[in-house]
Amino acid sequence: MEALDNKCPACGAKIDFNPKNQKWDCKYCGSKFTLEEMQKYQNASSKEENKKEETKKSTKKEETEDLDVYHCKNCGAEVMADENTTATFCVYCGSTAILKEKIMEGTIPTQIIPFKNVKQDAIEKFKQLSKNRPLMPKFFNDSKNIEKISGIYIPFWTYDLNVSGNIDFNYNRITTWSDSHYQYTKTDTYLSKRNSHMNFEKVLVDGSSRFDDDLMDSLEPFHYKGLVEYNHAYLSGFLAEKYDVDEKKAIERAEKRAMNTAIETTRKTITGAVATVSKNKLNIKKIKNDYILLPVWMVNVKYKDKTYTFAMNGQTGKMVGNIPLSMKRTVAFSILIFSIVEVITCIVLYMI
């Protein structure tokens, strides 16, 4: 199986997508190309080509190997990738190898949000996590960890859903008053019936089981105005993952997210009381779904046999991740605080 690599139309060197100017920059000859120019020189796919590949893969027998070997066009090295990888780097020459055959297995993405932030932006955001965190292990600031930050296109399913129907709430209203002898409390219990109708557009569901769903949810929102038609040229210089959670499985999570939002939104129409759901007759209908790729800068840091994942939204720059506490630093900090308190206490007692 052959790897597909984007080449500079001017000098033939490998060329990467630049998130800053949204063009393809050649580091060797200095040329810059737009998507239209890349397509003109056949270094980017067209909508018609994607349709042809979709037809091809529908008649192609699916592969069952967990690992495949690809040949780098640039240096001839063998590039290994697992069944979910759609783009990777050649570990020998650094050339960007885009695994076209892997992309075309299953559903082809319809849209993509290209990266807006470069690796240095992600590094700076990661470094900022350590500020004002004196108890964070020093290990997290190790340059070896920081340099592992990689740009990855994460597969997502999006769903347009309609939620409609009836929902009943129970709630209490409590009134209190008093006179010269007693304190009175009156509790009135109510049944509130509501009719709800809501449309949800592009409800996101992570299509890769590799990444924690809560982590991916925390990266939202993505600005959908940045969505463009999918083109494999945008993968130049980045990694990408193919979905391993199919549309039928992912919709369960989309429906749950939409249902919870519909209930909470309807609940807020009851003011001045805590309402609980007594009967839910809301129905969910799928209008349509799409398969898209979204940009994420990510690094995994292994600390004391546990892996900590940090991710940055490659479009908005939002950084998420949990940092553990260093036990040594925590103990030292506690002793320091205790010592300061002891000294202050002794001084106060001496002055008294």
Structural notes for this entry:
Strands 6, 7, 8, 9, 10, 11, 12, 13, 14 and 15 form a ten-stranded mixed sheet that branches. Strands 1-2-3 form a three-stranded antiparallel sheet. It has a two-stranded antiparallel ribbon with strand order 4-5. It is flat and about 95 Å long. With 352 residues, the protein is of the alpha+beta class. It is 25% helix and 36% strand. It folds into two domains: 108 residues, no CATH class; 155 residues, no CATH class.
Key structural traits:
single chain, 352 residues, alpha+beta, 2 domains, 10-stranded mixed sheet, 3-stranded antiparallel sheet
- How many domains? The number is 2
Let me know the largest β-sheet.
10 strands, mixed
Please state roughly what percent of the residues sit in beta strands, choosing from under 5%, 5-15%, 15-25%, 25-35%, 35-45% or over 45%.
35-45%
Helical element count? 8
What is the H/E order? EEEHHEEEEHEHHEEHEEHEEEH
Using only C-alpha atoms, the radius of gyration works out to 27 Å
**CA-to-CA gap between the ends?**
84 Å
DSSP, total strands: 15
> What structural class is derived from the secondary structure elements?
alpha+beta
Work out the helicity level: 25-40%
Mean pLDDT: 82
Unreliable stretches covering 5 or more consecutive residues: 59-66
Shape label: flat
State the gist of this model.
The protein has 352 residues and is an alpha+beta fold. The chain is 25% helix and 36% strand.
